[in-house]
Amino acid sequence: MGYLRTGELARRAGVNVETLHFYERKGLLPEPPRRASGYREYPAESVRLIRFIKRAQELGFSLNEIHELLALRVRPGVTCAQVRERAERKSAEVRRKIADLKAIERALRKLTASCSGRGPVAICPVLEYLEGDML
Amino acid sequence: MGYLRTGELARRAGVNVETLHFYERKGLLPEPPRRASGYREYPAESVRLIRFIKRAQELGFSLNEIHELLALRVRPGVTCAQVRERAERKSAEVRRKIADLKAIERALRKLTASCSGRGPVAICPVLEYLEGDML
DNA sequence: CTAAGGCCCGTACCTTGGTACGGAGTCAAG
DNA sequence: CTTGACTCCGTACCAAGGTACGGGCCTTAG
C-alpha cells in the first residue's frame, strides 16, 4: 500500500498526531482522502511536506508565512505575474536572513578563534556585527 | 547625558516599553542603573542589543537561544574551552540554517525564472529542494 | 472472535512572547 | 507650582503553536 496512516506519518516526520490534525485545520496540510471508516490515508510524500514545515519554522517563518510559501505554486486562477512578484519578495527576505546569519556566524567564528589561542579575548564578539549601521 | 530612559530606548529600538521590562525580567537585558526616583538609565548601546534580539528572533532563535548567544562572552568564571565549545555548536547550527535558506532561495529563484518566460511552469518548485535526502 | 493498539473528534490546557491597564509617583516647561 | 507627559510596578489578558485527554469506533494478530 502506498499510503500512510496518521500515526505512521507522524512517526516518520517526527511530530505527533495532534500536530497533523492541527496543520490540517490551519490549511497547511491538505485534507487527505479517507477510507470508509474515516481513517486518513496520506500519500507518502506528505512526510517531506511536514519536514519542510518544521525546517521553515526553525528558520523563523511563521505558519502563515509557510502557508504563503507553499501557496507559491502556479495554479489555475493565479497569474504568473502574481506568483513571480510574491516569490521575489520572499526571495529578498530570505537573502536578508542569510546575510544576517552569515554575520552571526562570522562573529561566532571570531569568538572561537579568539578562544583557541592564548592572549586577550574579545569582550563581546557576538554583538560585534552590529557595529555596522544595521537598522 | 549619555543615557536613555525607557521610552526613548524603546522608541529608538522600535519596541515598546513593556517589552523592555519583559526582557529585563527574562534576563536578556541587564538591569540598568536607576536614578533616585527609580527611573532606569540605559546606556546608549542598549539600542543595538535590543535590535540584535529582534533580528535573531526573525532568524528563528527563541529568547532562550538568544540568551545563550549573548552569554557567549568571555567572562571570569567561564573557561575559554567552554565558550569555544558552545560557540562551535551554535556556529554549526547557523551554518545549517544558512544552507537551508539558500536551498529555499534557489527554489524561489527557479520559480521566478519559470514564470518570467512563456512555456510550462514547474508544479511545486518551493518544495523541490526537499528532493535531496534531507532529514 | 476478541483484546490491544490505532484512530476519530471535540474540548481543554499549556508555553512563548509579548500587550494592555491602572493607580501612584516623577519630571520639566511654562 | 502646576499640568501634561513619562515612569514605576503588578496583574491581567492575548495570539501562536501546539499538547493532553477522553469517550467511542476501527483493525488486526493471535
TrEMBL record, chains A, B:
PANTHER family: MERR-FAMILY TRANSCRIPTIONAL REGULATOR, REDOX-CYCLING DRUG-SENSING TRANSCRIPTIONAL ACTIVATOR SOXR. Keywords: Activator, DNA-binding, Mercuric resistance, Mercury, Metal-binding, Repressor, Transcription, Transcription regulation. InterPro entries: DNA-bd_dom_put_sf (IPR009061), MerR (IPR011794), MerR-type_HTH_dom (IPR000551), MerR_fam (IPR047057), Tscrpt_reg_MerR_DNA-bd (IPR015358). Residues 3-72 form the HTH merR-type domain. CDD domains: HTH_MerR1. The keyword Membrane does not apply. The keyword Kinase does not apply. GO terms for biological process: response to mercury ion. Mediates the mercuric-dependent induction of mercury resistance operon. In the absence of mercury MerR represses transcription by binding tightly to the mer operator region; when mercury is present the dimeric complex binds a single ion and becomes a potent transcriptional activator, while remaining bound to the mer site. This is Mercuric resistance operon regulatory protein. GO terms for molecular function: DNA binding; DNA-binding transcription factor activity; mercury ion binding. SMART domains: HTH_MERR (SM00422). It holds the Pfam family MerR. It comes from Tautonia sociabilis.
